[in-house]
Amino acid sequence: MNRTTLSLIAGTTALAAVTAFAALDGPSASGAAAPKPAANLPVQRTSLLCPAPSISDIADTAFTSFTPVTQSTPSSGKAQLQAADEQTTDGTGNSRTGQGAKDSKASKGGKKTADKPVLTPKAPGTPATGDTSGADTPALIGTADGKFAPGWTVQETTEVAAGTGRGLQGVTCTAADTDFWFPGASTATGRTDYVHLTNPDDSAAVVDIELYGKDGAIKSPLGENQTIPPHASKPILLSTLTDTQQADLTVHVSVRSGRVGASVQALDGKAGGDWLAAATDPAGSLVLPGIPKDATDVRLIAFTPGGDDADLKVRLASPDGLITPAGNETLHVKSGMTTTADLGAVTRGEAGSLVLTPTDRSVPVVAALRVVRGKGDKQETAFIPATAPVGTRATSADNSAKGTTLALTAPTATATVRVTASAGSEGGTATTKTYTIKSGTTQNVPVPAPAGLQGTYALTVETVSGGPAYASRTLTATEEGVPGFTIQTLPYDRGMVAVPKTTEDLSVLQK
Questions:
Q1: What is residue 3's DSSP assignment?
Q2: Longest C-alpha distance within the chain, in Å?
Q3: What pLDDT score was predicted for residue 496?
Q4: Does residue 179 surpass a pLDDT of 90?
Q5: What average pLDDT does the structure give for the chain?
Q6: Cα torsion at 322, 326, 327, 330 (round to 10°)?
Q7: In DSSP terms, which residues pair with 128 in a beta bridge?
Q8: How far apart are alpha carbons 285 and 363 in whole angstroms?
Q9: How many CA atoms does the CB half-sphere of 365 hold within 13 Å?
């Protein structure tokens, strides 16, 4: 039999199979309903990874766990956070295994599990907190299932009284992934930046760390083939990967095998420091929400990974609408090169968010803001990466009666947003308020607080209509004249998953 005959037979068979499938899947002669759209159901299991909080012996860290109340969840479930094995790095970038936590024991297979969890999450709707101190606090690997899984959020907040990185540092623990972008890192004198990599799985992960400066890619063989052992966390000092000193770098973490959680800890010898969370995936238009109204200096760091240059229109979404910062109307980003723009005190005492859009052709870009509050030797630093919209729901944990600012922005269309303050970790009743954010504006909204609040509480933000809406939460804590602060963006929590609905009983096909 020749090739043409075989092709004709194969084509006829395939067409018959497609026709039969369409007959089963489509409306029947008896008037059966068409296939129903996929249903959004709560996720059944999730995981979060928290980096080791600090290298300082005088650091105090609070972990806060919260799961928002979600309809149609199982009545049972659990959530737990346990210490990861610690991997320290020597001057060559190679690793050696260290003690994961003071109270950990080696288990079968070489894993280490904590004798006592850092905290035990409470039922959905109520935050749970746990405190640690010193430089021995390990990275954490957390899992949640059943009623604890949808929207599970863990916040890590650290106060450092003095030394490099002094001030307030905060990060939202992240899910494992395979690709991360960090515009805003540095290897300059006075900066001590670590990229923290945590592997939650039973097999090793292999990771490449690429560095891009103002002139393009920086050769860094030591960044290639970094191995992260199972259930371990590894902080890598960026200055051990290159001799090049640059004030602004874009760090790209790509995973060859496995998956990891990744965050950059950016510590400054004079201007404090904070965690730099991964920016949202490269896109033509970006939103960086919630610049503090009293920011004294704001720097935009941008990078395009594609083969084409990007030309961006730079605008500030203020309480009164979109405005163009004087002297920074546009930004030209050369392909493969980190580009910066100094915006100064761009907010001028009002709430603001930065909105980047293409001037002509859309080219994917990643971006972040380095934000400074205070002056002279009383400066403190934080970062705002470009982020995804709030979407259906986003959550921030570890809020207090004072020192919390919630910024909401609707860059392209008016949005109605519902904000719920949870019960307090030690007592209090949840409360909800609804806000309308006009198109092109940013509002620092009055944060609702639980009635009779005791302890900390969580804020849940939901888009009711319009939008898209973007959000960030700022925590402040001034000590000895230093305006400590940290900013976390609030992207969609991915607590729901689309599950297709079937309309036909196909069990007869098995008879």
A1: H
A2: 89
A3: 84
A4: yes
A5: 87
A6: 10
A7: 65
A8: 9
A9: 35
Has this prediction a pTM greater than 0.90?
no
pLDDT tens digit sequence for 28-70: 444 455 556 677 888 999 999 999 999 888 899 999 999 999 9
Residue 174 has pLDDT above 90, yes or no: yes
3-state SS assignment for residue 18: helix
Beta strand 191-199 pairing with 261-268: antiparallel
One-letter identity of residue 84: A
Residue given tokens 């019960």 in the structure block: 423
pLDDT at 14 > cutoff 60? no
pLDDT at 118: 75
Backbone angles phi, psi at 375, to 5 degrees: -140, 160
User: Distance from first CA to last CA of the chain, Å, rounded?
Assistant: 34
d(CA 1, CA 140): 63
Contact 87, 98 (CB under 8 A): yes
pLDDT for res 40: 80
Query: In sequence order, what DSSP letters do the residues of 37-74 get, joined into one string?
Result: PPEEEE-SEEEEEE----S-TTEEEEEEEE----TT--
Q: Hey, what are 335's tokens?
A: 């392909």
Phi, psi of 169 (to 5 degrees): -125, 140
| Residue with more model confidence, 131 or 489 | 489
Q: Report the 10 Å Cβ neighbour count for 309.
A: 15
Residue bearing the bigger pLDDT, 19 or 201? 201
**What whole-number distance in Å separates Cα of residue 230 and Cα of residue 461?**
35
Q: Which amino acid is at 433?
A: K
Which has more confidence, 96 or 375?
375
Local confidence band at 498 (pLDDT 50, 70, 90 cut-offs): confident
Please count the other Cβ atoms lying within 10 Å of the Cβ belonging to residue 481: 9
Task: Name which of 276, 51, 311, 290 is nearest 183 in CA terms.
Answer: 276
Q: Tokens 């790509």 belong to which residue?
A: 254
How far, rounded to the nearest angstrom, does the alpha carbon of residue 371 sit from its chain's CA centroid? 17
For 362-409, the DSSP string reads ---BEEEEEEEES-GGG-EEEEEE-----TT-EEEEEE-SSSEEEEEE
Look-up of token digits 């540092």: 169
